[in-house]
Amino acid sequence: MTTFTSEPLSDILAWAHEMLKENTTLSFEVLNPDIGRGSYAGESVTIDKTAYIYRSYKAWSDLGEILFCRMLTPKIISKHTVQITYEKLDLSDSFHHSDAKEEKYGTQSRFAAIHKNEEPAFLSPYLRALRSVKVGTKKRILNLGINTGDEFDLIRQILSEEEYRTIELVGIDHCASAIEQARDRFNEENATFYVHDINDLASLDLGRFDLIITIGTLQSPGIEFKPLFMKLVQEHLTPNGALILGFPNCRWMGGEMIYGAKAPNYPYSEMTLLYKDVYYCKKYLQQKKFRVTLTGKGYVFLTGTRIHFFP
Ligand SMILES: C[S@@+](CC[C@H](N)C(=O)[O-])C[C@H]1O[C@@H](n2cnc3c(N)ncnc32)[C@H](O)[C@@H]1O
Asked: Which protein residue's CA is at the shortest distance from atom 22 of ligand 1?
């Protein structure tokens, strides 16, 4: 097995790329990251006259992600070293490749296997956003692109039963199978779901909402991002209304949430469109006197709350 001691990461990266051209897994031996913990990557750790470059498990896991691999459980090889093993992800195993229209995100799709609330990089900033808009004080909440309702499920989990029951939840999605499942999950009276095109909210005549949430949806093909976004703010928010917008900065492949937005015509993650759309929303909301924060990693969360709150 190949052993790395003081080689720079650039050498290891080049070696791994080369290995993965011919192999679906690769293993190598390195300094056990538990030894020298607290060091930064690149610091030198000398053991028994051998100089090692320290790297944490997080660094090795990041490298696996960059190589589109999953990292398997490391094995202890010697008193000071471990074996790191990467296994190539099946990149064809992804809902991104589906051509199905409304049912691309249906209950029979690969998307249905994804539970975002179980991914820390999604859960933590989404929770923060819900808390920062004081979700428990909102009386009417609208979710566009609700799918099977995961985003409402977290609201139900974090609020007391009493708080939750006083909120009216409305979810919209054009995917019939997903909405059917959402209706099964939320058979409470305060939750209503529509199979409907969100480009045509006017015909539902839903009134205004104290909170609008839309995650991974506004940039979908078939949605005119800017006009819809402006309409949401102008026609569907109450004067004190808040917004939580989630912009994907990841791809879901082979069971993993891989960091970085995929853009057409680029073989690697490219974020111009993400930054452009996020910045557009931020500027627009600031002009309308919202306080806007941007948080998150695999998903960028834009949270907008009114600066002048009228009780
Ligand atoms: C990437 S999924 C995100 C679902 C959910 N918000 C989440 O983050 O897990 C996008 C959702 O938007 C829905 N969608 C896309 N375009 C739509 C449209 N024009 N009208 C209604 N729903 C739409 C899809 O069916 C899908 O459920």
From this structure: 173
DSSP alpha helix (H) spans, 159-224? 161-165, 176-185
Q: Residue 72 above 80 pLDDT?
A: yes
- The CATH topology of domain 95-306 is Rossmann fold (3.40.50)
Residue type, 260: G
How far apart (Å, rounded) are the C-alpha atoms in residues 214 and 290? 17
Candidate from 220, 247, 250 with most ligand 1 atoms within 8 A of CB, to mutate:
220
Question: Under a CB-based contact definition with an 8 Å cutoff, are residues 299 and 215 in contact?
Answer: yes
Extents of the domains making up the chain: 2-88, 95-306
Dist CA 19 CA 26 (whole Å): 7
> What ligand 1 atom has the least distance to the C-alpha of 223?
19
Task: Identify the band that residue 64 occupies on the pLDDT scale cut at 50, 70 and 90.
Answer: very high
Give, using CA atoms, the residue closest to atom 12 of ligand 1.
Answer: 145
The model's pTM: 0.94
List, chain by chain if needed, residues with CB within 6 Å of any ligand 1 atom.
105, 116, 145, 147, 150-151, 173-175, 178, 197-199, 215-217, 220, 222-223
Q: Among 110, 143, 154, 173, which is best to mutate for testing ligand 1, by the most ligand atoms less than 8 A from CB? A: 173
The residue to which tokens 């949605």 are assigned: 223
Neighbours of 89 (CB within 10 A): 20
pLDDT of residue 113: 94
For residue 221, give the ligand 1 atom closest to its CA.
16
Span 193-209, mean pLDDT? 97
pLDDT digits (tens, 9 = 90+) for 145-165: 999 999 999 999 999 999 999
Own/partner pairs for 227-230, CB < 8 Å, 24+ apart?
A: 228/198, 228/199, 229/280, 229/281, 229/284, 230/284
Q: Where are the beta strands (DSSP E) in the chain?
A: 2-3, 25-31, 44-47, 50-53, 69-71, 75-76, 81-88, 140-144, 168-173, 191-195, 209-215, 237-248, 250-253, 256-259, 290-296, 299-306
